[in-house]
Design a protein that fits this description.
alpha/beta; Aminopeptidase; Alpha-Beta Plaits; four-stranded antiparallel sheet; 10 helices; 16 strands; binds zinc ion
Length: 396
């Protein structure tokens, strides 16, 4: 009964979801600077019968929907930051904030979550337990908003956390899930190799950091191929090798920067250890001095298997007219700071297919766009999972 009521109301509000998404899309803000968006979110709840806390761990907003009936506490998380990208779409609601763009779909996340939260508030007397809405800032930029919101107590009293991401590379109508490790953890580093400069004709009087750096780049390739168990997944990419100089001058220093991803926190640790070892080896071999700044970042996103299956089943059982299938998918290469919630509590993060008609651009691309049908699908999917979770709870 209550499920049908929630689904119908969400359907009736589809247009408003789209309007909110377009408003947010037009007014994107960078990670840790999303003050106007946070204000917009808080204002949305004004006059609503609900407890709202702003400034949680920074720009985060916490909304607590207490149904008044005992039960479990479920947190639903949606992020709201944008990226430093110059938008190149022809959308009538393209970014008005030049150089900043919602190129990951966090505008869609916030839009569907506001309307879902509003509807849950309207129906709260018919629900059990407590729903905490986590409007999270700064997903895109390490150290990320999740850690800070957690440190500020956002998960106090919460039993489980659910989240979703719209995906431009997945067919609209599909809802996808994956138990256990489902998104990579990451780290990044900056290596400064200091040698001593000199004349190109007299390398014996200098100490060339470019040669040392070239060896570092080659040796790092052996971490994945020689140091990881073939059943572990990890990757190291050197994204920058700053050795620009003059053809006949030996430089005194080069700077390399790299990215590490791994589908498991142990694997990530192994890669970090090996990078440090190779760096020390290069120092010994070439007589250079290395300064390695290694930053361990978002952990691997681990979806609780039981909760994830329960969520998938609830969405399937809801028989949503716009959902063509609920399927298990492959693990996804990007990283997500939702992973921090999964480290604290059994949690689940699902994917909502959002491929637009025509050309598809990946997330973080200047022409990124989504199919807006995914907003209602996200609201109804997370909504039906929440209803199943709260109403089938025997804890009273
Ligand atoms: Zn992103
Ligand atoms: Zn994202």
């Amino acid at each position: 009964m209550i499920l049908g009521k929630l689904m119908d109301r969400l359907k009736d509000k589809e247009e408003r979801m789209v309007e909110i998404r377009r408003h947010l899309h037009e007014n994107p803000e960078l990670s840790f600077q999303e003050t106007e968006t946070a204000k917009y979110i808080a204002e949305f709840y004004e006059e609503k019968d609900v407890e709202v806390e702003t400034g949680v761990g920074g720009n985060g907003v916490k909304v607590t929907i207490d149904t008044g009936t005992p039960g479990k506490t479920l947190a639903l998380r949606a992020d709201f930051d944008a990226l430093p990208i110059l938008e190149e779409t022809d959308l009538p609601f393209a970014s008005k904030n030049e150089g900043v763009m919602h190129a990951c779909g966090h505008d869609a996340h916030t839009a569907y979550m506001l309307i879902l939260a509003e509807t849950l508030i309207e129906l709260k007397d018919e629900l059990k337990g407590t729903i905490v809405i986590i409007h999270q800032h700064a997903e895109e930029l390490p150290p990320g908003g999740a850690q800070r919101m957690i440190a500020d107590g956002i998960l106090d009293g919460v039993d489980n956390v659910l989240g979703a991401h719209v995906m431009s590379n997945m067919e609209t109508g599909k809802v996808l899930y994956r138990e256990k490790e489902s998104m990579t953890g990451r780290g990044f580093f900056k290596l400064t190799i200091k040698g001593s400069g000199g004349h190109g004709s007299s390398p014996h009087l200098a100490n060339d950091p470019i040669v040392a750096g070239a060896h570092f780049v080659s040796e790092v390739q052996t971490i994945v191929s020689r140091r990881l168990n073939p059943f572990e997944a990890g990757v190291v990419t050197i994204g920058s090798f700053d050795g620009k100089g003059v053809f006949n001058v030996i430089k005194d220093q080069v700077v390399l920067e790299g990215d590490v991803r791994a589908m498991g926190d142990d694997t990530k640790k192994t890669i970090e250890k090996e990078i440090k070892r190779i760096s020390s080896g290069i120092e010994a071999t070439f007589g250079v001095t290395n300064v390695l700044e290694y930053k361990d970042d978002y952990p691997t996103l681990y979806n609780d298997p039981e909760l994830t299956r329960q969520v998938a089943k609830a969405i399937k059982d809801a028989n949503l007219s716009n959902v063509t299938s609920v399927e298990r998918c492959e693990p996804q290469p990007p990283s997500e700071d939702f992973a921090y919630y999964t480290k604290e509590l059994p949690s689940s993060f699902i994917y909502i297919g959002a491929a637009p008609e025509g050309q598809i651009y990946p997330h973080h691309h200047p022409k990124f766009d989504i199919n807006e049908d995914s907003l209602l699908i996200a609201a109804q999917s997370i909504g039906s999972a929440a209803i199943d979770y709260l109403m089938n709870d025997s804890k009273e």
